Amino acid sequence: MLIDFHTHVFPDKIAEKTVQVLIQGIRQQMGPDYGSGKPLTCRPATLDGLLESMKQTNVDRSICLPIATKIEQTASINRYAETIRSEAALSFGAIHPEDPNWEAELESLVQRGFQGIKLHFQFQETDIDSPQVIRILKKCEALRLLVVFHAGEDIGLPPPIYASPEKISHVLTEVHGSNLIAAHLGGWNQWDDVEKYLVGTPILMDTAFIRDFLPKEQCCRIIRNHGADKILFGSDSPWESPADTCAYLQSVGLTDEEYQKITYRNALRILGGAETA
Predict the structure, then answer these.
(1) pLDDT digits (tens, 9 = 90+) for 98-124
(2) pLDDT band at 276 (very low <50, low <70, confident <90, very high)
(3) Omega before 39 cis (within 30°)?
(4) Which residues make beta-bridge pairs with 157?
(5) What is the largest CA-CA distance in the chain?
(6) pLDDT of 1-24, one tens digit each?
(7) Rounded CA separation 165/188 (Å)
(8) Positions of E strands within the chain
(9) CA-closest candidate to residue 90, choices 12, 3, 11
(10) Contact (Cβ atoms closer than 8 angstroms) between residue 97 and residue 119
């Protein structure tokens, strides 16, 4: 069984344009030749593209993570997320930290059956340890909502870093953190600070988009020291294929038990699902 806890889809009419804008941002940060000679995405960034990719890569379930980059997008994004939600593609909701209706929207998401939300502070330009975000995290903790958030640098966006491992550690003085999922193994391209500030804390981490950037020895060390029971498989599809993420994790030195926890057992536990044959 394989559960991908970190994927993205966009409505059909804007998917290709959205991807091209994001690729332009990546090449502005990484250089105009970055990824030349190969596609930077592994599939169309649509729901159909995700479902077809899941068949090809033996993914049983994907979690779709929408991002509200503007306050006025929140309600419409969540309506779209509700329409695409299924057993195979379970979508979380989106919240913008500056949305004046954030509390009512969170309560509405719970009433509508959402199990979590996604925050992306690099797009939303808000520090994770700011009062605006802390109030959201406290509310999510009370509502038992999972919170997936982009952690560390973003390959397509410039500094400052709004959710660095150190700033994330500040949050843990305000909330317990066991419902928080720090994407990109706690902080993309800031893994030394992940080891300094986050390893051993209650937060969860996912494995999205680390394959080409994090040395295998450090990956294994972070997972072992943090605890494999707090790591979730994530590919960041369409930016990375789940098959490539699996191959990377299989090569870093994990035991079979650790690998199974990461690839599906932890996800089943926190989502309340049952294991199937």
Answers:
(1) 999 999 999 999 999 999 999 999 999
(2) very low
(3) no
(4) 154
(5) 48
(6) 999 999 999 999 999 999 999 999
(7) 9
(8) 3-7, 61-64, 89-91, 93-94, 116-119, 146-149, 180-182, 204-206, 231-232
(9) 3
(10) yes
Residue type, 50: L
Dihedral angle sign, alpha carbons of residues 18, 23, 26, 31: negative
- Rounded Cα gap, residues 231 and 55, in angstroms: 24
Can you list the alpha helix ranges (DSSP code H) found in 118-229? 121-124, 131-143, 165-171, 191-197, 216-226
Are 91 and 64 in contact by the 8 Å Cβ rule? The answer is yes
Report CA torsion sign: 221, 222, 227, 230.
Answer: negative
State the Cα–Cα distance between residues 233 and 6, nearest whole angstrom: 8
Query: Can you state the percent helix, strand and coil of the chain, rounding each to 5?
Result: 45, 15, 40
Whether the full predicted model's pTM is greater than 0.90, yes or no, is yes
First-to-last CA distance in the chain? 8
Contact predicate 50/89, CB 8 Å? yes
Cis bond upstream, residue 131 (ω within 30): no
Tell me, rounded to whole angstroms, the distance of Cα 22 from its chain centroid.
Answer: 16
| Amino acid, res. 219 | C
Cα within 13 Å of Cα(58), Cβ side: 9
Q: Are 186 and 164 in contact (CB under 8 A)?
A: no
